[in-house]
Amino acid sequence: MIRAAVTCHTIRVTYSDTVSDTAATADIVVAVENLAKTFNGTPAVAGVSFTVARGQTVALLGANGAGKTTTISMLLGLLLPSAGTIRVLGVDMVHERHRVLGRINFSSPYVDLPRRLTVAQNLTFFAHLYGVCDARERVARLAEELDLAALLRRRSGHLSAGQKTRVSLAKALINDPEVLLLDEPTASLDPDTADWVRAYLAAYQARTGLAILLASHNMHEVERLADQVLMMRAGRIVDRGAPGELVRRHGRRTLEEVFLDLARGAATGALRHPAAQ
């Protein structure tokens, strides 16, 4: 039998500010300074600094090996930094992350939920794990919003890749987090469903003031969701700015062209823009 935590929290309902206002004026909920991680003498992340405000989406954009997943893993506490500081909701994540773990969450289609449990059992388990008081109601609401109602009795191991992605997102929102870390959130989804999920995330964020840190290779996704893009290469942030700002700065037509310059090493010193420092 799954027992709820001694204390529980209710789900937030509304958020008074708009996302655009929030990005400029709200409190910083994620603050990363000079973050570094080295594996066997090889730097995976080297002196990364950035912030995420309430209601803002910040995207990590870079080729494989740029340091995106390592950065997210350190924010989650799965990896200890070699140097630097991480503060989430004002708490030092290296030494006191237990104080805020119930207020953040994470989603990745590459991380499976227990395969023998049904979708309903998995979501209920995580609802209790996060101390959600109205667990049954929360599971039912997310199942309806994410079109999972017909899957609730199905074992998670029997789901398609796209269905698993939607269940993973439901798990990530089960505690109505204040900070959400997303790693390729629409991978394995067909274009229509992926577009629907992006619209859902944008509406959810506008309603709740959720702060999102997003790692994605999908340029359309980044352009649609991100207020700020951090362009990473070899563990460093080499440029940052709004999607349109980056396109104009580098004299390209699309964000994808800027990304390809970065990934192929074809960009000139313009990529090392003062804004990246």
Description:
This protein is an alpha/beta fold. The chain is built from nine helices and ten strands. The chain has helices at residues 19-25, 68-76, 119-129, 135-145, 161-173, 191-208, 219-225, 243-249, 255-264; strands at residues 28-39, 42-53, 57-61, 83-88, 91-92, 104-107, 179-183, 211-215, 228-233, 236-241. The strands form two sheets. It has a six-stranded mixed beta sheet, sandwiched between helices.
Fold blueprint:
Elements: H1 19-25, E1 28-39, E2 42-53, E3 57-61, H2 68-76, E4 83-88, E5 91-92, E6 104-107, H3 119-129, H4 135-145, H5 161-173, E7 179-183, H6 191-208, E8 211-215, H7 219-225, E9 228-233, E10 236-241, H8 243-249, H9 255-264
Parallel strand pairs: 3-8, 3-9, 6-7, 7-8
Antiparallel strand pairs: 1-2, 1-4, 4-5, 9-10
Helix pairs in contact: 3-4
Number of helices: 9
Architecture (CATH level 2) name? 3-Layer(aba) Sandwich
SS elements, strand count: 10
* Structural classification: alpha/beta
Distance between the termini: 52 Å
Instruction: Please describe the biggest sheet, giving its number of strands, its sense, and whether it closes into a barrel.
Output: 6 strands, mixed
H and E order: HEEEHEEEHHHEHEHEEHH
**What does the radius of gyration come to?**
19 Å
Which bin fits the share of residues in helices?
Answer: 25-40%
At the third CATH level, what is the topology name? Rossmann fold
SS strand fraction? 15-25%
Which parts are unreliable, with pLDDT below 50 for 5 consecutive residues or more?
1-6, 15-25, 266-275
- CATH class, named Alpha Beta
Round the mean pLDDT to the nearest integer and report it: 86
Output the CATH homologous superfamily. Answer: P-loop containing nucleotide triphosphate hydrolases
Q: How many domains in all?
A: 1
The shape is globular
If strands are numbered along the chain, what order do they take across the biggest sheet? Answer: 6-7-8-3-9-10
